[in-house]
Design goal:
The chain is mainly alpha-helical. The protein has one domain. The protein has two helices and no strands. α1 crosses α2. The longest helix has about 35 residues. It is flat, with a radius of gyration of 16 Å.
């Protein structure tokens, strides 16, 4: 049974991590990287698996985290 579920779980982990989260955080980080580099980067690297795509996703995670902390900080007393 383990041989059956292992590929299915790997596929689901890939879909969640790469496609959903990668796309979500890339979309958040893209305008910030584009503004910080004055339009030079990123260059058509979406879903390419390159290092630059990973950097843009990291910027997206950072922006999302800071925004989430700011929003949640507004509601705490």
């Amino acid at each position: 049974m383990d041989e059956l579920f292992s590929p299915i779980l790997r596929f689901l982990a890939y879909v969640v991590s790469e496609l959903l989260l990668g796309t979500f955080f890339y979309a958040i980080g893209w305008p910030f990287v584009k503004a910080a580099t004055l339009g030079k980067y990123p260059m058509r690297e979406w879903l390419s698996g390159s290092k630059n795509e990973a950097y843009v996703c990291c910027v997206g995670i950072l922006v999302f985290s800071i925004s989430l902390m700011a929003v949640l900080g507004q509601f705490s007393a």
